[in-house]
Design a protein that fits this description.
The structure is a homohexamer of 251-residue chains. Chain A contains 10 helices and 11 strands. With 251 residues, the first copy, chain A, is an alpha/beta fold. In chain A, the strands form 2 sheets. A 6-stranded mixed sheet of chain A has the order 5-6-8-9-10-7, sandwiched between helices. In chain A, strands 1-4-3-2-11 form a 5-stranded mixed sheet, sandwiched between helices. In chain A, helix 5 packs across helix 10. The longest helix of chain A has 14 residues. The interface between A and B is medium-sized, with 34 and 34 residues.
C-alpha cells in the first residue's frame, strides 16, 4: 500500500488531528513510500527496530514513538542510534499515543478490558471525554486476592495490590499506562477498584484512606493490546503482512 | 520550645526560603504554640496522624506534607479527615520537601548514601545545583547482582534491577524518591549505575540502550532517612521528645 | 436533606461547572453528611462562623468563601481558626462566587435591581456574557442627588457619588462588588450612570472626563441580596431551616 | 534645561530602569525639547493638563501617567482628549510610578511618613525589597481614635478606621495608594496597625480577625507628596519654575 | 457620514470582532465625528498622513495601522509625530489588518489574484481557516521565467524567483505580505509555486530542496490592492470622496 | 581529534552554555567519534551536506543548524533527507547560532566589520549585552551612494539602500542576519546608518521618518564570515583539514 494512503486512513479512523497530545501522531520518521511488511509493538526501542530489520519490515507501528514534549531535540546518544537504524533501512515509524489509548475498538483501554473480561460501562470521566480510561465491572464479583490472581493469569505478570485481599470487588475503573494520577476520579465516582500500569507514593495513601483497591499491573503489560489489535486490523484492511513483537519490559 | 523558634531554626538550617518547590515548606498546619513531643515520618498520611495522636505529639515533621501545586484546594475527602484530625488535636504539621532532599547533612540523599555505604563525590548535576541527588562510588566494586542484594539487605526491600547481573559496577548516581527522569544525567556523565525510588517505562529503554544499570529501590524506602535524621537533630538541639514512625509503604 | 443532593441541586441551578472563577464553587469544606439548619451570609468570616455555631447550623452558604487563586494555601493564622471552627463543629461550607453574581433570579445583580427598583434591560456586556452586571433604567428619572439619597435609603448606607448632583439620570449600568474596572463598558454604551460596590482612583477620572455618574455603594452592601434569596429558595425547596445573618461591614 | 538631560537625571536618581512596573517610566509623551516651566501633580487627568496649559507649562511630572498594562491602546475617548491637549500644546508628560513610591528621599512612602510624623524603621518586606512601603512607629503611642483624628488633621481627609478606637497603637506599617493586599505582611510582622489609601472587603475581615488596626486614608491623599517633593528638588537642581497642582479626588 | 456608522459598517462586513490579530482593528485614532473625505493607503506612515492633510481628508483607511503587540507604547519619536499630525488635523485613523487580508471580496489575497489573473480554488490551509492566503492556478501554464515576467508586468516590480526558470508551473499558493513562513503549507499540498511579499534565508533552502518555486514580490506591492478596493466600496456605499495614495516602498 | 574534545573546546570558547538561543548549540547530530576533515558553511542545507560527502568530511560546522524552536519535530520531508545523508555518512553536524554571532574574534559581526573596514566602537545595545551587533564608524566618511558601492564591492552583492544617496555617513550600527527589528536601537543612539542582512516593510518607514540610512546587504552574505573564521581557527588549533564552502543564496 502507498504510505500516504495508509497514514491518512489511520489518521482518520483514530481521529488523531482532533486529539491534543504530548507527541506528534501518525508518521514520525519517513522510510520507503510503499509499505508491505509491518512490525507492531509497544515502544520504538532499539530492540524493536532490530527485530523489524530482521523481519525486513517497511514500517513499525507503535504506541510509544519519539519527539515527546520537552525531549532533547538533538540527534545524539540513543536517539541517533534509533534514527540511524530506521533511516538506513528505510523503515517508516508510525506512532499513535493518546489516539490509540482512546479508540473505541482498537484502543488500549478497550482491548485490555477484553483481555481481562471486564464489562465496559462508560468513560472514566464523563465530564471530560479527552481523559482516556473507562469504568465498568469485573466478569463476576471477586475478592481482592482473586482478582489479583486473575490479572496475573491474564497478563502473565504479577500486579501490585493495595487493599484488603478479602474484600469483594464488583465495580472497577481502569486506564492503561501511567495513569496513577486518575485514582481520584475513581474515588469520586465511588468505584471499588482502580487498575493502571504504574503506581506512586501518594496513590498508596489515597487508596488506603479512601478504601479503594489499587492494582498496578505494568505500564507495558497494560498497553500491549492496542498496537496489536490495530495491526491486525490493517493486515486485513490493506492485505499487509503484520507481526506483533513483544519486547519484554518489567515496568 | 516555642513553635515560632523551632520553625525559624529549621527554615534557616534547611535554607527553605531560597529553594523553589512544588509545595510550601515549613509550618503547613498550625497547632499548639509550644512543642514538646514530635513524631517524624515520611508522609503525613492518616496513618501517621493517628500514630501521632496516640503518642500525644504536638507536631509532625515530614518530607511529604500537603498543598501540592495543582492539588484540589477544597477541604473534602481525605484532606478533610487529615486536617480535622490535626486541628482537633492541636498538632502542628511541619513539612520540608526539596530542602530535606538536598541538605548536606540531614538530607535524604546524603542519609541514603550513609545507609548504603556510598561514597559521595559531588552533586548529580554540577551545572544546576537546584537538582537534588549525588554522584559517587560503591563501598567496593560489585556485580549488578551483588549490589542488588546489598540494597535489599540495607533497605529491607527488594530493588528492581535493569541491567546484566554479572557486570561490575563502580560508579553510581542516585536521587531519592521519584527521580527516574534524571537517568539521562547519569548517562551523560558516563556513570555505571543510577539508583532512585521509582521507575517508568521509558527509563527501562534508556537504561538498556545505553548500558547503564538502573536500580529502583522504592520511593518510600529511599526517602525514609532524612526526616529521621532531622528529628534526631532537633531532639538534641531543643531537648525534645522525638519518635520516628515508619508507616510501611510498598512503593 | 443529604448534602450530596443539596450540592448537586445548587451546582445545577447555578450552572457552576460552566463558569470559570477565581475560587472553587460548591462544597468547599465538608461537614456533616446531612443538612437541616443553614446559615446564609455574604462572607465566611470568623464572625459568621461563630453565629452559625450559635445557631447550631449544619451548613453555611455564602458568596465569599475561601481558596482564592493566589492565596497562601497553608492552614495558619485566620484560615486555621476558620477551618478549625468549621471542622470541629461539623459545619459544611458552601460557596458560590460568580455563579451567584450571575443567576437570573437569585443573583446579586438581579436582586440588587429589585431592592433599588431598577428595571433590567439586558446584560452589561452583550458581547461577553461571562461578564456579570446589567444595564437598565431608574424607577423614574432622578437627579444625581436624588438617586444618591434613594440608594442610601434602600441600602441603609451612604454611597459615594462622582458627578454633578443636579444632572438628570435615566439609564444606569450596575455590577455588584468590586467592579470599578467595568466603568468603561458603561461609558462605551453611552449610559448615564454606573453603580458598583467599590471605587478606585482612575475610575474617578474616567467618570469625570466622560461625564458619567459613578455611585460606589459598598462591596458588602451590594452583595447582600443573592445569598439571602438563594437561602430562601432552598428553605422552600428542601424544607430546610435557613437564617440570613448580616455581619456588618463598612466596605 | 534640555529635556534629554532632565529625563536622564530623573531616570538615574529614581533608578527607573531597574524597577519592573505596570507602565513605562520616564518620558511618556514627548513635547518641546527644552523645559522651563513644570507642573507637578498626582495624576495626568484632563483637569491637570488644563491647569498646565493655563500655566503655560512645558512639562507635567506625575505619579500616575498613561499606558498601563492591559489598557486599551487606541487613541480614542478620554485618551484622545488627553493626548491631543498635550501634543497641541507641546507639553511633555513625565511619569514615575513605582520608582516614585520607593525613593528613599522623595518617595511617596517616605514623604507620607514626614507628613504624619511617623518614624521609619525599615522596609515593609525585608525579604523582597521590590515591595514598596515601610514599617515604623507613631510619633507617640495613641489610641485608634486619636490616630484617626491625627490622620484627618494632617491629610485633611477623614480616614476609615477598622479596629477598636480605644486600643493603643505604637507600631505601624504603611504603603501609599491601593496597597490593601499588603495587610498580611503587617499581620505577619506583628505590627499594631496598617495604613494605606484604599480598602476592600476581605481586608476588613483580615484586620478584624487578627486584631490589626486598618486605616484607609485615600489613594490620592496618600500619594500627593512624592511628586510634590520631586518637583521641589528639580526646581532647585535645574533652576526650573515648578508648581504643584492638587486636583481634588475623594478616593 | 457619521464616523460611528462608518466604523460599525466596516467592522461588520470585515467581521473584525471575530478575528484575532496583532493590533486593534477599526478606529485606532479618533478625529472628527463626521467623515466626508477619505484617503486610503497601505501604511499609516508620515508620508501618507501628510498627503491626507494636503487632501484635507477626515479619515485615513489603511492595512497597516499602529499599536502592534510588543510595540513601545510611549508617544515619542516617529509615533509622536504621526499622532500629533493626526490629532492636530482631526483625522481619523481606521485600520484593518488580518480582516483586510482575508475578506472574500475586498481582501488583499483575493484582490491580488485579480491583478495577476489567478484562479482561486480554495483557502491556503483548509484545516485552519484563520490562516490567510489561497491556492489556485495560473491564468495558463507558464515557465518560471514567464511567470516572473508576468508578475513584474502586473505589479510593476521585479520579483525574486527561486527555482528553475525553464520549469512549467500550473498550480500556485499565495499569501500577501510577509508570509514566507507558510511555504511549508504549499509544499505539503504539493503545489508547484508559492508567492508572497517577502523571503528569508530558510525559505530559500526549503524551496530548493523540495523543488517548489518561490516568488517574492514585495510586501507593499502585494498588499496594495485591498485598501484600494475597500475604499472604492465605501465611496459607493456612503457617497464619500475617496482617494487611494500609493507611497512607494521598495520592500 | 576526538569529537568530544573538539566540541567541549568550542562550547567553552564560544560560551555556548551561557547564551539563550532558539536552537541547541554545539553537537546537533552525532557522526563519527573522531574528526579529521571538516567542512564549514553558513547553513546545513542539502547542498552543503552533499558537498561535505564529496569532500569525505567527518563534520560540518555551521551557523544555521537544525531544531529551531517551534519547528515540526518529525523526521519527514527535507529534514529526513538531510538527517539520512548525515547519518549514513557518519558526518557530525556542529552548529553555533547566537554564540557565533557574538564572539569577539570569530563572531559574524566582528568578522563582517573586518571585511567592510568598519571600526568597532562598542556593542549595539550597551544596556543588554545579550543583543548581538555593534556600533562603530565607516573607514572614512562616505556618501550613502559611495557606501552602497563599497558594500557591493566587499560582499560581492548589491545592497538595498533606504536614504538619500548624497548624505554623508560617518557612524554606523550593524547586526548580521535578519536584524531589521534592531533599527530602533540605532535610531535611539543617534547613529547615521544601520546595516543588516534583511529588511521589512515597517523598517522602511522608520528609516525614512527618522532620517536614518538603512542598508540591507543579504542574510547569507553578512553571515558568511564567522563560520569561515572559526573553521580557520580550529584548523590551526587541532591540526584539522578544514574547507569553507559557500553555497550561493540570494537572500
Amino acid at each position: 500500500v502507498a504510505r500516504k494512503e495508509l497514514i491518512s486512513h489511520l489518521d482518520r479512523i483514530l481521529q488523531s488531528k482532533k486529539i491534543r497530545d504530548y507527541c506528534p501522531n501518525g508518521l514520525q520518521v519517513a522510510g520507503s513510500e510503499t509499505i508491505q511488511k509491518v512490525v507492531t509493538g509497544v515502544t520504538a526501542s532499539q530492540g524493536l527496530i532490530e527485530a523489524a530489520i530482521e523481519e525486513e519490515a517497511d514500517a513499525i507501528l507503535v504506541h510509544h514513538g519519539y519527539f515527546w514534549k520537552g525531549e532533547d531535540e538533538r540527534v545524539i546518544g540513543i536517539k541517533k542510534e534509533r534514527l540511524k537504524a530506521l533511516l538506513t533501512h528505510d523503515i517508516n515509524l508510525i506512532a499513535y499515543h493518546l489516539p490509540l489509548d482512546m479508540h473505541p475498538v482498537y484502543g488500549n483501554n478497550v482491548q485490555l478490558a477484553d483481555v481481562l473480561g471486564l464489562q465496559v460501562d462508560g468513560p472514566l470521566d464523563d465530564e471530560d471525554l479527552s481523559v482516556p480510561g473507562n469504568v465498568g465491572r469485573l466478569p463476576r464479583p471477586m475478592t481482592g486476592g482473586e482478582f489479583s490472581a486473575w490479572i496475573a493469569q491474564c497478563l502473565q505478570r504479577e500486579p501490585l495490590h493495595i487493599g484488603e485481599s478479602g474484600d469483594t470487588i464488583e465495580t472497577i475503573a481502569w486506564c492503561t499506562g501511567g495513569a496513577q494520577g486518575y485514582l481520584q476520579k475513581a474515588v469520586d465516582a465511588g468505584i471499588d477498584a482502580f487498575l493502571t500500569g504504574e503506581i506512586n507514593e501518594p496513590a498508596v495513601h489515597l487508596a488506603r484512606e479512601t478504601g479503594t483497591h489499587f492494582f498496578s499491573a505494568g505500564h507495558h503489560a497494560t498497553e500491549r493490546y492496542g498496537a496489536k489489535a490495530l495491526g491486525e486490523y490493517i493486515a486485513d484492511e490493506f492485505d499487509l503482512d503484520v507481526t506483533f513483537i513483544d519486547i519484554d519490559n518489567p515496568v
